[in-house]
Amino acid sequence: MDHEPAKAATDFFERSCEKFEAWPYNFTRSRLGASARQAAADTWDREAKRVFKAAKPLLRFMEIHDTFDTLDQSESNSERQAVERCPGRPVFEVAKNLEDLVSHLHGATIAPRIRYISVQSRSSKDSLNCSPAMFKYLCTYHQIPPSIMNSVYSFKTTLSSHDYNLALFHDDNTLLAREEHILRQDQLGRSGREIRYSFLLRSVEGSDSIQTQKTPWAIRQLAVYHSFDVVSGRALWLTCKGNSVIEDRFRDVLSDDSAFRPDALQTVPEAFCASLDVLMMILDWCDDNWRWYINEIANEVNKKARKASTVTIEDDADFGKIRRLVTGVHEQRAERLSRTPSLESGVRLQNIVRGFSFSRKPSVDDQSVHLEEDIDKLQSLKIFSFNELQVLQAALENIQEALLVLKLNHQVIKQIRDHYQTLMNQYRIPEMKDIQEQCKNSLLELCRHSKGVEANIEARQAQLDSLLLLVQESKALYDGILQYRSFQINKIYAESAQMSARKMEVIANRTKQETTSMHIITFVTLIFLPGTFIASFFQSGILEWPPLEPKDQWKLNSKVFGLFMGISLTMTAIIICIYMVALYMLRRQLKAGA
Q: What are the extents of the domains in the chain?
């Protein structure tokens, strides 16, 4: 089909609007086949509930219409009235439901020179304030291709970053498309030959929804769709954003910039240059706030890095102390043994001394002093905590996220610049001739501006690369300090336990010595007690002996002495046997219990 009658195209467009619920499957005027459109429709059915919010939808419109003088006499009275309300000024409208949207889009018989549509969400991690039906009708009316959803799907109700900081660019222009793949709508001023693309960019912004940081920052996404009719010069901009930053910039540009007045948009090249100005405004958003965000991360990291690098840690190995802890012997004793002279027989004098003396153990008081010194040394490490290590880990994650965002943004900006350079240099079609001849300076300005943004992005990447290395080194140093502190604390506990064991050993040795002494005393007592008892018995008066006169000579009474010794020795032997048997039974019970 070489040319479709305007009536048939109008009928097709009206039927599509009536069946807008079938979008994106009913987007038949494209190179997409049925299976590709069905896949897009299936993805929509799966994701739309999380992307769009049916409660309290709100779409904002900003439009630049033709001036009254440039309207043809054939234009409707409603179109003339809309221009008369705001001559030379942008028109601001809102649509709160599907009826408002349909009424606004069909209220004028011809499309405005520039139409900007803002779709917002409460935050970058929330769904869009637009019902699925309203978005489908908007895409059907403006013949927006399903590829826009690759950018819009980044808006979802989620608690974490979605799509892992994805940024992308998708070109879907119809400049070289076959006639059956475009839809001419002469009644709306649309030729069907359009520069069409969508992209997704991310940048850092201050966030009011984050209350856990002193100066909260958040990586936020911006989805953009743009179409420019190269025959009529009419442009459409659609943005999806988690706040009103881009919407406010559009309002300022459309309201205050003289390049966007209706009388400055009379020709297609003028309108094309204006679209490049809007694009540069959006690219500027990618470069905003990065300096302050990086400075804040750097300040936080430098505080931790300086603290970790300037702390004094005494890590000299005290081998003498280690020897004493392991062997329990003073280093001086080993030195004294090495200097002890030997006898000619080969027996050291120290061995003789050792037989008559006890080995000197390290003083418990000395060990207590060492423990107090070690504890005092650890006081300087109290300023380091695991929470600070978590702060460094969070900074590391933020830097890695920022590097990824900047890298992907750099790629998208380069794709956009290459896209326009291709349009201006390689598209040899009649519709682009005037644009290519009259917009060279505007293209040069876009290329210069985009390269400046790319250079700034590369500078930010270099800053973050250096900061990333600093964070990694500081994190490793912090980890080493915390491990060293834990090791020293464990060592102090071990020394304290060993000191307690030494105390118990001293007590045990003393108890052993006292027990040995008691055994000796008991044994001696057992030997002398029977004799003492018998002697006392003989002297008690129970037995009477003939008295001796002082003048009589001393003589041994063998019979009495024999009786005394017989009874005493017998009783002593019996008592010792009883004691030995009792001691043996007691030790046997102790061994059995052990």
A: 6-288, 505-544+556-593
* Residue 406 and residue 461 in contact, taking contact as beta carbons nearer than 8 Å: yes
Q: State how far the Cα of 363 lies from the Cα of 353, in Å rounded to an integer.
A: 21
- With H, G, I as helix, E, B as strand and everything else as coil, classify residue 428: coil
SS3 579: helix
* Run means of pLDDT, 10 residues per run, the chain, 594 residues: 65 90 87 89 92 92 75 46 57 94 87 94 89 95 94 80 80 91 86 95 81 72 96 96 94 91 91 96 94 93 76 60 56 44 39 40 56 60 70 90 95 97 94 95 96 96 95 84 75 77 84 80 77 72 60 66 80 85 85 78
pTM: 0.74
Q: Which helix (H) or strand (E) holds 198?
A: strand 194-206
Three-state secondary structure readout of 74-139: CCCHHHHHHHHHCCCCCEEEEECCHHHHHHHHCCCCCCCCEEEEEEEECCCCCCECCCHHHHHHHH
561's tokens: 């002495």
Residues in the chain: 594
User: Domain 6-288 adopts which CATH fold?
Assistant: Beta Polymerase; domain 2 (3.30.460)
Tokens, residue 223: 């989805």
